[in-house]
Design a protein that fits this description.
Bound molecules: flavin-adenine dinucleotide, iron/sulfur cluster
Strand content: 15-25%
Number of strands: 16
Distance between the termini: 55 Å
Oligomer: single chain
Strand order of the largest sheet: 3-2-1-4-16
Radius of gyration: 23 Å
Length: 458
């Protein structure tokens, strides 16, 4: 009875060791472990896992190939629907998507679909470079090199378009490079390989180009001969609480803190990037960004508290990241909300004044909303406060391009195919939806690539 085989555990670095280094936490399956785990899949006739994958990866088909040891065949099946399997296998919220719907999860543990995807992506023999059609004479500009931009550029290049990605930072990858830490997504191996594959399709990546400052979309289209544009600029504008004391030294957005460490390598002795943690750090928020900031501060040597206004059940972060954070010794201060950051008289943070919360009625998100408990204010002594409260799209592109409408929340208005309110300009990923997930951004990039192809063939 296949369902009696327990889910194969994935080897991980010891929490005591990894709390002091930036090496990858999860070590992945070896071939034998992957084949055993693959043998648990029931190959359902109507696989619920596929319906729950935002890009519809043919999960039972690729798992069948892993079971037989045909890793390259499995990689080819995944590549039909996903351009970043080594990334998605590591960072997708599988527990709410494919694995959350796996039939085996009803009475036991779901198939470890994410770990199998990662195994395939890491262990395929060659690069998953597809054949490229002959150049068709049309040029497309892709703005932003995150998952949305990379996925859009790859598909268009395969179909014969001359594609240039313009990236504001000095390295490509978007959040995958500057946001998600090395211990979850290794940069020089996993991410570099994924980006090199995009380059090998003929895609040019021009870094240090801020579209809207260095060059505008109108200039790209009118003077540089681009026939269409895809905007995948993400949602990199951090939000703050608007409480007193947020301008004190020692208060950071998670975005800045993580960028200093990941993109600018503050954690490495051979880099001079300054970073401040002090001895105790409070990270405000409960999503993946909060977990990443907290676990980074821990590795830089601080005692770290997560301050979150709901309970563990409502934490929006991936379950695995919460589990890892707890194992590593991060303290979770639940049902706690900051009301003020207090200074030491010299302009630096001294403590975080908070109020206790309780859960009231569900709000529009369906989660029970936190309500302050009157008179319950208290202080947490701390040197550093990191705000991880979400991000919004940067308005630079919409402000410097005629005809692009935005929503109330700052996202670009785009239809289900990614067409914006201006013909020839398409958009997708966090720039449209606001902060979301890698797989949704990648899916939006591929959908827009198809729409650009249709538009340019008219
Ligand atoms: P981005 O990845 O943000 O890329 C946009 C790129 O556009 C950036 O490189 C930016 O520099 C560039 N850009 C912006 N403006 C311009 C301009 N004017 N000109 C040129 N270039 C420009 N999702 C998950 O699924 N799982 C996770 O575990 C997870 N963890 C996360 C952890 C952190 C710390 C963060 C910040 C996000 C996390 N996410 C996670 C969310 C996920 O990374 C994003 O939803 C996804 O990266 C969005 O992709 P994108 O391509 O739309 O934008
Ligand atoms: Fe296999 Fe689970 Fe998908 Fe069924 S739902 S095909 S058991 S992974």
């Amino acid at each position: 009875m296949t369902e009696r085989i327990p889910r194969v555990a994935c080897r991980e670095q010891d929490p005591k060791l990894r709390a002091h280094n930036f090496e990858e936490v999860c070590l992945g399956y070896d071939r034998q472990e992957a084949m055993l785990e693959a043998s648990r899949c029931l190959h359902c006739k109507n696989p619920r896992c596929v319906g729950a994958c935002p890009v519809g990866v043919k999960i039972p088909e690729f798992i069948a190939e892993v079971k037989s040891g045909n890793i390259d065949r499995a990689a080819a099946i995944i590549a039909e629907d996903s351009s970043l399997p080594s990334v998605c296998g590591r960072v997708c919220p599988q527990e709410t998507q494919c694995e959350g719907s796996c039939i085996l999860g009803v009475k036991g543990e779901p198939v470890a679909i994410g770990k199998l995807e990662r195994f395939v992506a890491d262990n395929r023999s060659g690069d998953s470079v597809s054949a490229r059609a002959a150049l068709n004479g049309k040029k497309v500009a892709v703005i932003g090199s995150g998952p949305a931009g990379l996925a859009c550029a790859s598909d268009l290049a395969k179909w014969g378009y001359e594609v240039t990605i313009f990236e504001a930072l000095h390295k490509a990858g978007g959040v995958l490079e500057y946001g998600i830490p090395e211990f979850r997504l290794p940069k020089d191996t996993v991410l570099k390989r994924a980006i090199d594959e995009v380059r090998s399709l003929g895609v040019r990546i021009e870094t240090n180009v801020i579209v809207g400052r260095t060059v505008t979309i109108d200039q790209l289209m009118d003077n540089e001969g681009f026939n269409a544009v895809f905007i995948g600029t993400g949602a990199g504008l951090p939000k703050f609480m608007g409480i007193p004391g947020e301008n004190l030294c020692g208060v950071f957005s998670a975005n800045e803190f993580l960028t200093r460490n990941n993109l600018m390598k503050a954690y490495r002795d051979d880099y001079l990037t300054p970073i401040h943690t002090g001895s105790k750090v409070c990270v405000v928020g409960g999503g993946n960004v909060a977990m990443d900031a907290a676990r980074t501060a821990l590795r830089l040597g601080a005692e770290v508290h997560i301050v979150y206004r709901r309970t563990e059940a409502e934490l929006p972060a991936r379950k695995e990241e919460v589990h890892h954070a707890l194992e590593e010794g991060i303290v979770f201060d639940m049902l706690t909300n900051p009301v003020e950051i207090l200074g030491d008289g010299n302009g630096w943070v001294k403590s975080l004044k908070c109020i206790r919360m309780e859960l009231g009625e569900p709000d529009e998100s369906g989660r029970r909303s936190p309500v302050p408990v009157e008179g319950s204010e208290f202080e947490i002594a701390t040197d550093t406060v990191i705000m991880a409260l979400g991000t919004a799209p940067n308005p630079l592109i919409s402000k410097t391009t005629n005809g692009l409408e935005t929503t109330r929340r700052g996202g670009l208005v785009a239809d289900e195919n990614g067409a914006t309110t201006r013909p020839g300009i398409f958009a997708g990923g966090d720039a449209v939806t606001g902060a979301a997930t890698v797989i949704l951004a990648m899916g939006a990039g591929r959908t827009a690539a198809k729409a650009i192809d249709d538009y340019l063939k008219k």
